[in-house]
User: Fold this.
Amino acid sequence: MKIPAIPLLGLLPTLTSTSPLHHASCVSPQSISNSSNTYDYIVTGSGPGGGTIASNLARAGYSVLLIEAGSDASSDIRTQALALNDFSNANVAWHFFVKHGDDEERLKRYNLLVWRLENGEYWVGKDPSAEGHVNAERLGIFYPRGATLGGSAIINAAATFLPSDSDWDFFDKGVEDGIWSAKLMREYFEKIEHNNYLDKDTPGHGFTGWLQTNIADRATHAASTLRFKVFEACLRLVGKDPEKVLDYLTSDGNYLDPMRDQSEGLWSLPYHVTPNWRRFSPRDRVLEMRNLTNATLHLQLESLTTKVLFDSCSGNDTKPRAVGVEYLQGKSVYKADPRRNASSTGTLHQAFARKEVIVSGGTFNSPQILQLSGIGPKTLLEKYDIPVVSDLPGVGRNLQDNYEIPVYGNAQVSLAAAPDPDAPQCTYGAPGDPCLDLWYKGEGPYSRGDSNSNAFLIKTPHAVEGERDMLMFAGIGRAFAGFVPTEFLNSTSYPPSTFSWSTVKIHPQNTAGYVQIQSANATDTPEVNLNYFAEGAETDLNAMLDTVAFARRAFASTEAPVGPVISVSPPCPPEDILDTGYCRDTQIDKDWIQDQAFGHHPTSTNKVGPDSDPMAPAGQNLPANQFHSRTTHETLKAIQLSNSPVPIIERHNMKLLTLNFLTCAIKTCKTNPASFPLHPRDAELEIVEADVNLAFLKNILPRLMWNELRAICSELGLPELPPTAPTPADLVEPSSTSASALDTTDATPATATEQVEEEPSQTAKDLHRILLETCIQEGKLVCGACEHEYAVKEGVANFLLPGHLV
Assistant:
């Protein structure tokens, strides 16, 4: 089984279940809601998933309530200048403490355990009593998560490295809806990207979208060349030209090539930042949308979603409808907020949605919200007296993460760049920081990125399906051994001769982690157990051993004056390191990796899969939803997407199929049948080719308004559709459907099954061409009832209305 690697933000399948419904109390929005607390959509969580979707829905003219537990920290310079990033900043991050498994002895060996002392302060290490601290409370392994407008995109490293094509194709195959293919995802990336570092005719990239991307330039890398000697040694090991280090360091890691995911070597690491290295995030999109004159996006900050409200009064025992949410308004009410105190109580409110509730609280909090709402494992819900809406054992399961460890050593000389007497002395945000003053002007070191904008990828002997499976980032003068609260960031000192590889396992095979509530109190944090190496250890652990050996071989072969680099960690005695780079006693390295591995890319706690999979609470069939509620962000994937998150969210060309669902948004037209369909005028059409997907066509066929579709095709001058809609059988070539009737006397049962493969008929191809390949790029949509015009620009229809028309 192939399990890919890091979360790419914002997949949006609909939450489904085949489990029986057990009604709780009857909640009717008609009796509780009013105009002041009712919206078209409610979105909980403002990160790369929720923030982007809420902005797009509002841009389309829908009224949207975006609920965020944190505040807007736009004024905090640490959330703007990437050079000042502080991942545990109490103003923007929740402090979770997790477990790596149930092995108590292994947990005790973790070097960066966090404890709370009697005075309330944090302490980091294995045993605080060794320093005289008694009665300290062991909290666990520090795991910060974004809790502010923009979510974790405000505190992350901002890396924007595209996943493997096979990750998308694997996911696409798993959900069988044909819309998550690598080819299509690359097209969406091109639509949303605003690339700041490549020529504008570079294939596979976009230059007019909203997602700002950038890399460190040649001058930045050229300022620190001693480390190049280690890069050269690594390049020789993978058969690359060591003389081209600087060229590789400024090459595009997201390049378009069918062999990209099999290629080893050194590339730049792109970031989601502007040309002067200001962090760009969903926060920018949300604030832009909110500040529009006719904005329909309503921000509800400092409000913790406590549960989803369901309408159980309809009498339909299979489709409970999410009609709203309950939320606790107040600052720092969640117990993961380090600022919380006894006065952090909040007041309870409700809000209601006419159309959908979209849960996008992230990998830890989305399953918590669902479980508190009565959706999850029945035994868990009953343990805390939560009425069961649906028994879905997969909610909170399938938690995955990338394993990370540093591999570092000491060079023969200092690797720090020679001091420049004319350079400003940066104080990293302290009052009077001259580099910050320069950054505001688009100048100085903060506006040029950092030399750690690099990515070395290798393919170990344990790689899955022949793809590179380890990602390494180089740093000098430091090693990143895991997360600790801010005050302990510099508690471990490293000599300036330190060269470190931060190694990251791509395509991890472990899906055994889980997130589950520990009470019915929504302000309590859930239990988070990553269960490291519980599954797939033969692949993952050995690939990490291979990478340690690779780094040591490179250290040993690094040329003077830098090399040889003496390996320090993992701590195999130098005399026991073999020429192959492996430790003579491999158990030393194995134990170290298992004891000290950490991660920060959690994903997949609301798995997507077929209805037959009891552990897949999010079903594959988007239109046929049973909960009329959605989950998004990292929680949905059945797999982990490799390498780092990128918000490829809800960015589609305006396919002709879209007109099957759009109606006039003006309130006086709501009940007028002439308001549907909207009529295209002055339309500029574009054909965007895509593979025919029979499953999707069969699924959408019953939902097509055929007469209206025929009228639209006529208005656009497209080929005339037949008077009646085709049947699902009309979409399949008869020769392919009759395969099962062929003589299979000489075939085994397996080969007989393989012969049955449906081929799309010409009818299917024609329908696919019209619905999914024909796109309206420019023009307008006109209401047949009131003649109001909605402009279409770059494939997006603007449904914003003056207040008196909404």
